[in-house]
Design goal:
The protein is α/β, with parallel strands linked by helices and 370 residues long. The protein contains nine helices and 17 strands. A hairpin with a 4-residue loop joins strand 11 and strand 12.
Length: 370
Amino acid sequence: MTSTSTGPVGVGIIGAGVISEQYLTHLTSFPDVAVLAIGDIVPEAAASRAGEYGIELHGGPEVVLDHPGIEIVVNLTIPTAHFDVSRRIVEAGKHVWTEKPITTASEDAAALLALAAEKGVRVGGAPDTVLGAGIQTALRTLREGTIGTPASALTLFQTPGPEDWHPNPAFLFQEGAGPLFDIAPYYVTTLVLALGPVQSVSAAGSKAREQRTIGSGPKAGEVFDVTVPTQVTSILRFESGQNATTLLSFDNPNSRAGFVEVYGTEATLSFPDPNVFDGDSELTVYRGKEATAIPAAGPVTGRGLGVLEMARAIRAGVPHRGQGEIAAHVLDVMLAIEASIGSGETVEVTSTFTPVEPMPADFDPFATTL
């Protein structure tokens, strides 16, 4: 799928909420893309955000969908709206990059990918932190065979929860959130990029408290109910034969986050935090005494990097790395974990994807290449 256009790729934004600031800060700094319009169901929000970044066209979502110069639309709406908005983008004949999750239901993700294939457009999905220098350096190291044959992996995210610092945290402890849906996308995406598609999962979940108290902001002291597991432990079995254990917790006063290790026959590779774009890796060889640092090499920017990589891939007619198929598979893994917690049984994951190669270390977001 090669674009015949030249010059910067036209980009539109739908959703002018908090996360749009991060995307716009970076997208407006990349020479190979041009943000042409911002739309929101609250046009005043779009106007305010457009004013901050000097974008002339703003209004409702239609100003983005109807713009003939926009090739990629970035969907930054709330998760429950992702499918409907992304479907409208695809029906308008435009490529879509969506914030996580790609949709909230497996059947919707499959329908979106099928529609995109029919229309001849692409779907890409967050998180794009995994395209930053940190994780991509670790993936290149893994591909080079430095640890021998990968055998297993371990990921850990343990905190006391966000209610102490977040001014309105109740939604993070309710359906559609919790550590599983809020945090797992970063860790599961890293694991599938490292080890390939997941075949099945077994999981258990618990919650330390039925209620929590807001610790800061105007709602400090308010009590809210916890309706989802706040600690989730999962065993992922991969099509390639490896397995991984992942622990995600809002219940641990002793914070430990960003822990990703892949164990091989010759060495252990410690990845940086998958929720950031930078960070060095560490290699510990079998029977070695000390870990060796592997400095991160590659782009260190922020959200929007995946949109840029997708734009360049479209023009070159090559697959982009933040593929919708990967985002859909990660969603299926999380839903399988949720189902396994409920049933106490192993749950098969039926979706799959074609693994992608790591980004080259010399990928330069600030170069003019188109």
